[in-house]
Write a structure and sequence with these properties.
12 helices; two-stranded antiparallel sheet; 2 domains; mainly alpha
């Protein structure tokens, strides 16, 4: 992966490997890949430097609840700062390597379950490489990754079917407003069903490609 004039080596999960390649150019570039545009804010940098200190000096990665407590953040604040989450977002931007997190605490890497890697060909961002690969098993694994207690519901399947049909017909992705309107959803219900958002949540679980 190249950001600016520097090429960085990533592992199969899309994490920096080895971790000593990390610098602020990488952090800004990876942040853009995660949908954070306009540069990292002071609050985001503070959290990233906290993670790197824990990683380099304490040789650990705190669980998300402790990380939020140490930084006086609520979980909702963290989601706002890093829309793709703690592990796939903040820890990845901070250059913490996947194998280290797996060895330190396997639950940190639960959201990129090895089952997905074993059963499906994924891009570094965790999207299906091939739209035609999708099956309901893929959707169930993503739901398991999100740890939704209700599992894969009919409402999930309605959105998935709509997105897949729309993309197969047009090779484009509808806006979230179109998707909600056509399926009689409001944004609050949508957020509850797809905690990773529209592109990384609904579109990813439907097997649509990542654009941008």
């Amino acid at each position: 992966m190249t950001f600016g004039d520097t090429t960085f080596t990533l592992d199969n999960h899309g994490f920096l490997d080895p971790s000593d390649q990390w610098d602020e150019v990488f952090a800004e570039g990876m942040a853009m890949m995660q949908g954070i545009y306009g540069g990292l804010t002071d609050e985001q940098w503070s959290f990233i430097h906290y993670l790197r200190k824990q990683f380099l000096e304490e040789e650990t990665v705190p669980v998300v609840v402790l990380a939020c407590a140490d930084n006086k953040l609520r979980l909702g604040d963290l989601r706002f700062l890093f829309p793709t989450g703690y592990h796939r977002g903040a820890c990845r931007i901070a250059g913490i390597n996947y194998d280290f997190m797996y060895q330190t605490n396997i639950w940190l890497t639960y959201e990129t379950s090895t089952l997905l890697q074993e059963e499906f060909k994924l891009t570094p961002r965790g999207f299906l490489e091939d739209f035609g690969q999708w099956n309901e098993r893929f959707a169930h694994l993503i739901i398991r990754e999100w740890q939704l207690t209700q599992g894969l519901t009919e409402r999930h399947l309605e959105i998935i079917a709509y997105l897949r049909t729309y993309f197969a017909r047009t090779k484009n992705i509808p806006t979230i407003i179109e998707t909600c309107r056509e399926n009689d959803f409001d944004l609050e219900e949508f957020r509850e069903l797809f905690p990773d958002g529209y592109r990384r949540g609904a579109c990813r679980i439907a097997g649509l490609p990542f654009f941008g």
